[in-house]
Every structure is written in structure tokens, then in C-alpha cells.
Amino acid sequence: MSVSGMSQMCGVANKVIFFSSLNKISFYYKYFIMKHYHIISRVAIYLLSIVLIIFGIFHFLYPRDLLVYVPQFLVGGITWAYIVGGAFILVGLSFMTNQFVKFTSYLLAVLLIIFILTIHLPNYLNAGDKEMRQFALINLLKDTAIVGFALHIAASAYHQHFHLEDSD
Questions:
Q1: How far is CA 90 from the centre of its chain?
Q2: Angle at 139 between CA 138 and CA 140, to 5 degrees
Q3: Could you give the CA distance from residue 104 to residue 97 in angstroms, rounded to a whole number?
Q4: Is the pTM of this model over 0.90?
Q5: Cα dist. 65→10, 69, 77, 161 in Å?
Q6: pLDDT per residue over 124-138, tens digit each?
Q7: What b/e readout covers 108-118, taking b as 16+ CB neighbours within 10 angstroms?
Q8: Which of 73, 97, 135, 166 is the 20 to 30 A CA-CA neighbour of 38?
Q9: Whether the Cβ atoms of residue 98 and residue 127 lie closer than 8 Å to each other
Q10: Which ranges constitute the DSSP H helices of the chain?
């Protein structure tokens, strides 16, 4: 056998070993690492669900305390506390039951972005007291973090389509 024939055989053997190793790594990743990732993701989503349901219940129990956060230009006043409370509860239940997750994740993200722009940012910029300014900043950052998590949940809900496009 010639030297070039030998090097070709070694090249083929190296490729077989390389791809065989990739298959083993892929198998390990798919069945061991991703399996635990899925469990951890579900626990995180359940924790968010519980927090959202508690927020929603708080909106129903203490709507007058939340009325100060409703922007003046919105008509309806205290009704908005009930609407937001209901939305939080529905999103939390959606996440727990794994139904309409993509839709409710985007709904939560939009709702919180509206809160950030109409409540927390103006409160932060216009607060005269240092403590109120810090409180507004904490709420702004908290809602921004939840928006990021909601968008991640929506992107991960690949099996739940809006049926608006063919690929997701």
C-alpha cells in the first residue's frame, strides 16, 4: 500500500473516531445534561408562577394601595388594579398548567414593559425623596428581569405555535 493510500485510510479512521466521539457527546448532552436542564427550567417557571399568582391575589386584596401607581391619564382607576391582578393570576396558571405559555409569556412581557415605561421610570425620574427613587429603581429592575425571563419562556415554548408562520 502506498503512503498516500495509508494517509487516506488514517484520515478516514480519524474522521470516524471524531464523529463517533461527537455522537457520544451528543447522546450524553441530550439524555443527561438537558434532562436536568428541563427539570431546573420547570422549577424556575413554577416559582415564577407562584410569585405571579401571589402578586395577582395582592392586587385583589389591596386594590386601593395600588391605585397610586395607576397613571393619571388612564381612565378607570381602581379597575386597572383588578385587571392587572387577573392577568397575573392567569399568566401564573398558564405557566403551571403549560397551556398557552407562548401567548401569556408575551402578554406578561408587554404588560411589564408598559409598567416600566409608564410607572417605574417616571417615578424614578420624578421622585424627590432618595428612598422613593431607590424603590422605583428596584421595581424597574425587578420588572425588567421578569420581562427577560418571560421572553425566555416564550422562546422556549417552541411546541406552542401561534400558527402565524411555518417555522418557530
A1: 15
A2: 90
A3: 12
A4: no
A5: 75, 8, 12, 38
A6: 999 888 998 999 999
A7: bbebbeebbee
A8: 166
A9: no
A10: 3-28, 34-61, 63-66, 79-97, 101-115, 121-126, 130-156
